[in-house]
Amino acid sequence: MLNIFDEEFARDPWPVLRSLREAGGAHRVATPDGPPAWLITRYADVRAGLLDERLSVNLRYSGGSDYEGFAVPAPLDVFQSAEPARLARLRSLVVGELRLAGDWADRAAELIGKSLAGLDGVEEFDFVERVALPLPTVILGELLGLPESEQDSLAAWAQATLAPDARPRARDTLGAMRQIITAVIERGRDGADDTMLGRLVRSGIGGGAADSDELPGLLFYLLFVWYEVLMDMLAGAVLTFSARPDQLAAMLSGADHAVAVDELLRYLSPQVLAAPRFAVTDLEIAGQRIEAGQTVLCCLAAANHDPERFTGPAESNGALELDVRRSPNPHVALGYGAHACVGTGLLRPVLASILGELYTRWPNLRAAIADSAVPWRSGFRHRGPLTLPVRPHGAE
Ligand code: HEM
After folding, report:
1. Cα angle for residues 120, 346, 214 (degrees, 5° grid)
2. Measuring CA to CA, which of 86, 216, 232, 370 is 20 to 30 A from 386?
3. pTM for the structure as a whole
4. Is the peptide bond before 75 cis (omega within 30 degrees of 0)?
5. What is the C-alpha to C-alpha distance for residues 323 and 1, in angstroms, rounded to an integer?
6. Which domain holds residue 83?
7. What's the domain count of the chain?
């Protein structure tokens, strides 16, 4: 059985993914937790897998001794456990609510500017510690209208779980997450303001009932899952642009930064794997017979660098080079099909305004060390730099 998920994979997954993709089919791999799963890597197979109704994200279809993933406990698991009709209703309710109020770009610029201001005059700092880690608290605080006490709890959670020296894994901090989620929902119910949170609470998710499991399930993604991906995206973008000033200039001269954001999503693929899928019945995928109950991992990162689907030169490690003008960009970094990310209307403009603001302030922002020296979180489903020393005014 293949054992590919180590620290080196988090930093540079591309050589391994290229060879698995070239071999085609489904590969039996050991997961970091131990149990095995089927891994599929080609774009066409990954898209087909994400659309296949015989593969379910619902844990109740898992069987045998395959990898099951982290079982998100109820009531936070609604996106995994809802039956298809309820999931479709829930998704259609929230997609519209997870949008930004019109003037958010200006407000974001102001907030980001304020958080970066403390760094004026600092010659070199860790971008993860000083920017990527604290910034999502400020952004979420504004979007959801969180008072300082809740922002403090969120920041404390992030520090405890996502900082380089953090001990517990995010999955070990569910108690703290639940407390924050409950406090945030109560706040939303009390307020009549037009924050995103107020709109979500009033939108009729779960029939508007306070004890509904739908709103906590959504906030679990919005507050915690997104927190980590946003961090990974920001640090990954700065590292990537450091070695590609021409691409940075192309993004800054382009009218719509969101096009570059999509390409960064493709290139970095911060969520390497889609949620585990369990075979509801015996089936064949990518030419491989899969038994009912076995687990299939669709590798979004491998699909996003498949030369059968994307044009452009390849780097020596097998990654397909960044092209911030790529359009159309049918990447699967946000999933595809019935479980595709519901936050896309939010994350694109937020990331676009953060990147715009960051490089307006520091046009010469660059990593202070070589790519190969940057340590990566040895995640499995997610990847991002653990620390990233930068020089805001460029290399000497
Ligand atoms: C850069 C940021 C983000 C990335 C890369 C990302 C990525 C993804 C991916 C790949 C999936 C599909 C998983 C699968 O098919 O197994 C997903 C699902 C999901 N995302 Fe995101 N996401 C991001 C931000 C957000 C935000 C801001 C929200 C807001 C709540 C969100 C909420 C969700 C939810 C609720 C699902 C599950 C949908 C379902 O199962 O029906 N995500 N995300």
Report:
1. 125
2. 216
3. 0.96
4. yes
5. 35
6. 7-391
7. 1
